[in-house]
Amino acid sequence: MTDKGGPLIYLDNAATSFPKPPEVVEAIRAALLAPASPGRSGHAASLAAARAIHQARKNVARLFGVEDNSRLVFTANITWALNLALEGLGLKAGDHILSSSLEHNSVARPLARLAAERGVIWERVPLDGEGLSDPAEFRKLRRSTTKLVVLNQASNVTGALAPAREIKEAVGEVPLLLDTAQTAGAMDLSDLGQWADLVAFTGHKGLLGPTGTGGLWLKPGLRTRPLATGGTGSASESLIQPDFLPDALEPGTANTHGLAGLAAGAGFILETGADQIRQHELGLATAFLDGLSQIPGLTVWGPQNPARRVATISVSLAGWSCSDLSSALEQEAAILTRAGLHCAPLVHQTLGTLAAGGLTRFSFGFFNTLEEIKTALTTLDKLARRKD
Ligand SMILES: Cc1ncc(COP(=O)(O)O)c(C=O)c1O
Q: Would you place residue 5 in the very low, low, confident or very high pLDDT band (cuts 50, 70, 90)?
């Protein structure tokens, strides 16, 4: 509900998902009411807190189809998970890293720093004519010195899906670090354990958990250096960080409350089915794209084909800046969107929308309805005609 008592139309799920399922809210509430620090004490409440964290690990591991869930470590969000991988893999001067042209700053900034401070060579693979990542280009640009491929599985600006498995096949044994910020919970990822090398995720978007949760899964045989060391509740007699997972990469008291919520969010997805969630969201996206094609002066920046995208759609409207459009949508009909560069200046540079200050982004979630999409279309149409 808005301040004025009307319904709120939340179309900003790519930033963070809303609402959270009631199970998530309840799990966090119950964790907050428990007198416990997980894995630190032997009393029942502490053991229960550790079990809740274990449940989160098991649920997320199931979503990614990974067997050994101890190799899935929790971090504060995907930004920390990506940094843990990029900083900790021991990349050095002359090592070549390939990424797509659709990377978020959570990858672009660490890579820019590795290039500036360690002499790593970072190359971005151009998009094909339809704005999609092409496995053949990755194959072509791979060098003998390529040590890592980093891939945003779905753009948080255009919604374009990368053919991640085909890209992994194209680069062979070079490890692939996958950014699933916009895909985890929004589509079936249960084959990742078979072919991905490093999977980074965030808990508060499609996984329906709270902010402050995320993590990294590492394929057996891969190691990364911890960004920090400290207490783990294990091997406490030693001043050396334990080298077994997940403790090696999880120093300090875990975010018990957040992870209890993440366990419930991931549990909700397992019960509902990631395919069903994708079908619902793509149904909304298809209806929205159809309607947008009737609006004068409106441009969609991303693939039209639903099979090649997630339900994140960025637009520009002739005569409107992206921020004015976003504000007008909120004022007219309490529609919440996100305007600007979406922490992804490289994407806007590639699209040619950087100078204009970016785009207005609509992103749908499992709890959005067709009615809401229709209201968004009617409101956009009204605004398009107002500035005609
Ligand atoms: C593709 C992508 N990667 C990484 C991130 C960073 O997520 P977080 O802020 O949860 O670390 C985002 C957030 O919008 C994203 O869309």
A: low
